[in-house]
Amino acid sequence: MKVAILISGTGTNMEAVIRAWQQGKLPGVEDIPIVLSDTPDAPGLEKARRLGVATAVVARRPKEPRESHEERLLGALAPHGAGLLVLAGFMRVLSPFFLSRFPGRVINIHPSLLPAFPGIDAQKQAYDHGVKITGCTVHFVDETLDGGPILLQRAVERKDEDTAEDLRLRILKEEHELLSEAIAIVSEGRSSIVNRYVKVERSHEN
Length: 206
Ligand code: GAR
Known about the structure:
Blueprint: E1 2-7, H1 12-22, E2 31-37, H2 43-50, E3 55-57, H3 66-77, E4 84-87, H4 96-99, E5 106-110, H5 122-129, E6 133-140, E7 150-157, H6 164-187, E8 191-194, E9 197-200
Parallel strand pairs: 1-2, 1-4, 2-3, 4-5
Antiparallel strand pairs: 5-6, 6-7, 8-9
Helix pairs in contact: 1-6, 5-6
């Protein structure tokens, strides 16, 4: 399966996925033909190029309707034949129009244990709320904000001495592993969804 990665920012999750694939840890992934950003100066673009992966930028123009921007995103993706889209810090909610073109084939990484703390700055939301345990989630994307069926989650403990930044970085480290694990599952066809519950078959290696 070919996998396209969509980013808006730093791209550390994207980098972790590309490295895992280049190290042969994602056998179900035939190629990562494109990293697509909606943000022209996203630092992740340079990271992708250094890793030898092609990049494209499709920024939303001032006052451009969402559907028109999404049509251009789809146009940029079309030549690459991706079977899976991975949102790795891509900070836009995709419309049903866009998602209908990739049904059940878009996943997102989010830095909290959903459904707690959807939206932006989830780590800080959790920190400010005073939670003892937070974490990260990879979920299938639907038209709701961070609300689609949950594929994988990993818990991260907040320590007494943590700053918000300490907690963010500890979550991010777990995200880097969790996202590749999720891509392995989807690319090897090891997930199925019944009543929102995503059942995952173990790989033969585990
Ligand atoms: C990650 O923490 C990711 O979970 C989050 O943005 C960060 C991107 O970092 N995504 C969301 O909050 C989506 N709702 P990265 O660009 O270094 O991978």
